[in-house]
Design a protein that fits this description.
Order of helices and strands of chain A: HHHHHHHHHHHH
Oligomer: heterodimer
Shape of chain B: elongated
Strand content of chain A: under 5%
Largest sheet of chain A: none
Number of strands of chain A: 0
Distance between the termini of chain B: 40 Å
Structural class of chain B: alpha/beta
Number of helices of chain B: 12
Strand order of the largest sheet of chain B: 6-7-8-3-9-10
Order of helices and strands of chain B: HEEEHEEHEHHHEHEHEEHEHEEHEH
Number of strands of chain B: 14
Radius of gyration of chain A: 19 Å
Helix content of chain B: 25-40%
Largest sheet of chain B: 6 strands, mixed
Strand content of chain B: 25-35%
Number of helices of chain A: 12
Shape of chain A: globular
Largest interface: A-B, 27 and 28 residues
Distance between the termini of chain A: 28 Å
Helix content of chain A: over 70%
Radius of gyration of chain B: 24 Å
Chain lengths: 238, 318
């Protein structure tokens, strides 16, 4: 546990000495602020539901930017040799890296949006239920995106390639249900529908907590972190 | 629990270690032992399998076949236990350039679960003379300092075994001497394996040398005995004022001369039969032909030549 934390802590420090954390956070918050104002003025509705629905799309670009460096850079610089010869399991390396990006995401991307809730007060008392579950969805979807990003970063030494691999995986999951109609009615079509990312979060954003959605997000995190660990392990054999 | 110190077995035992990269056999059934407190030098041309062997011992990659144990633990089955006991300096020093020296060493110490990290970091910074750079960013350090930070990193958890891939590469002569002293001072308490290109380094620091070529061990002995063993012929150095292309062939006509090679700038290397001294005959020939004798002296075989002899397959004196 201590060594996972050592990796997480190093990762967080690395974020703040490179411009990436500031750039991604600033761009994300600019986009969010703009959308928040736009949605609020046009709908005059004291809720964040529409904002959250837009947010998960913007995050599609931001999350891979946060994770692209994590394992790719270690492989390019050879510092991965330090981690893989330390008394640390491969999964601990992957988890430590993931937690680093996740904490950054919560602190730099999610937390600053909390003041929107205060602004909503001006327009009337908001319904806190959907806002709370909305933020739960925000955290879950962030974790899922970042885990996919960690996996993308494990595959290559090149950060740009890691970025695009992660984004393509995210896009495929995003539109998985679009292709389900091609296969008509059946197990495959159902599976594709289940895989589609956005539909698991619309309920949470509306204030409806469904355990399948939470299980979905946690499964995505677990599967992709597991895959990233496997990638590291196979690289040892080569 | 197995412990090398308890039963007097070697700290490192390598048995029939092989490694394939696809179709390429990087290591062929390598076997050797390293006793506690010994400094073993690993010599070999690039691609000989030095780094591969080190990577297997440090748990970075598994072997294709064979086994290796460090302090009684199998490098593959008990990898984590082995890694706790090893300090490793890879060929490309694994440094995070955006960190300060202190932060980096603190990270390495945390990663290996060091208790009382501050004391451990101060100790290794003093050992490697980087104390005054504690707050410098690693990216701003010179190559020599980076190398020392790399060595400090390998020592921070006070490991039983130290494995260093080219530890003095990129250092200036003064630093090289310092690092060699440091490595020598580690012997006894620590078991050290180092690889190097710089051959005098081996004779100065190592108690035993292992020459590896094409993935196999071609020789294993003390530096002194190795050079005696390979000495198959006497060597003579000749320098003349008027170099001419026919000189080597002419020299080879002298009785007892095995070969003569031009080394440029009028210098020649002559090999003669073991136990004979042909200098007088050679001098006579040079004077007679009017080549202008400048220098003529016997050459004792350096470890460098031993190494070349053993790793170029023309003449392996086994």
């Amino acid at each position: 546990m201590k060594n996972i934390w050592a990796i997480t802590l190093r990762e967080l420090k690395a974020y703040f000495v490179s411009p990436i954390a500031y750039v991604v956070s600033a761009l994300f918050l600019v986009a969010m602020g703009y959308l928040f104002a736009l949605i609020l003025i046009s709908s005059r509705e004291a809720s964040l539901r529409n904002l959250f629905n837009n947010m998960i799309f913007v995050l599609l670009i931001m999350a891979p930017a946060l994770t692209m460096r994590l394992l790719a850079e270690e492989q390019r610089l050879g510092t991965i040799e330090l981690l893989l010869t330390a008394p640390v399991h491969d999964w601990q390396v992957v988890l430590g890296k993931f937690l680093g990006s996740f904490i950054l995401f919560v602190v730099m991307l999610l937390a600053p949006t909390l003041y929107y809730v205060l602004i909503l007060q001006v327009f009337g008392p908001p319904d806190y239920g959907p806002i709370l579950t909305g933020y739960l969805g925000f955290v879950l979807i962030g974790a899922a995106y970042l885990a996919i990003g960690v996996f993308g970063s494990s595959l290559t030494q090149n950060q740009i390639i890691a970025f695009f691999i992660s984004m393509v995986i995210l896009l495929l999951l995003w539109i998985a249900d679009a292709s389900s109609s091609v296969f008509g009615v059946g197990a495959l079509s159902d599976a594709l529908t289940y895989l589609a990312l956005p539909r698991h979060f619309t309920d949470l954003f509306r204030g409806v907590v469904d355990t399948t959605d939470i299980v979905y997000a946690l499964s995505v995190v677990a599967i992709f972190l597991f895959l990233a660990t496997q990638v590291l392990q196979t690289k040892r054999w080569r | 629990m197995p412990d090398a110190r308890m039963n007097g077995t070697p700290t490192i035992q390598v048995q029939d270690l092989s490694k394939w990269y696809g179709d390429f056999e990087a290591l062929r059934q390598v076997s050797f032992d390293v006793q506690k407190g010994e400094i073993l030098g690993f010599l070999g041309p690039n691609g000989a399998g030095k780094t591969t062997t080190m990577r297997i011992l440090t748990g970075y990659m598994p072997p294709s076949s064979g086994s290796a144990t460090v302090a009684g633990y199998d490098v593959f089955k008990d990898s984590i236990e082995v890694r706790k006991r090893i300090g490793y300096l890879p060929e490309t020093v694994p440094l995070y350039t955006e960190m300060t020296v202190w932060d980096y060493l603190d990270f390495c110490a945390r990663l290996r679960g060091v208790e009382n990290r501050d004391a451990a970091i101060e100790r290794v910074m003093e050992m490697t003379s980087i104390g005054e750079r504690a707050d410098t960013l690693i990216g701003k350090l010179s190559k020599g300092f980076r190398q020392r930070v790399g060595i400090a990193q390998a020592l921070v958890h006070n490991p039983e075994v130290l494995i260093m891939d080219e530890p003095t590469i990129g250092l200036d002569p003064k630093q090289i001497i310092e690092i060699r002293h440091l490595i020598k001072s580690l012997a006894g308490e620590h078991t050290v394996i180092l690889s190097t290109h710089i051959l005098p380094e081996v004779s100065q620091t190592c108690s035993r040398v292992l020459i590896i070529n094409d993935g196999a061990i071609v020789a294993e002995d003390t530096p002194e005995r190795l050079s005696a063993r390979v000495r198959g012929a006497e060597h003579i150095y000749l320098q003349v004022a008027n170099a001419a292309p026919e000189i080597p062939t002419e020299l080879e006509k002298v009785q007892g001369v095995l070969s003569a090679r031009a080394k440029g700038n009028g210098t020649y290397e002559i090999e003669t039969n073991l136990g004979t001294d042909r200098r007088a005959d050679i001098a006579a020939l040079v004077v007679q032909r009017g080549w202008g004798l400048l220098e003529l002296r016997p050459v004792s075989l350096s470890l460098e030549e031993v190494f070349l002899k053993l790793t170029t397959s023309e003449e392996v004196a086994q």
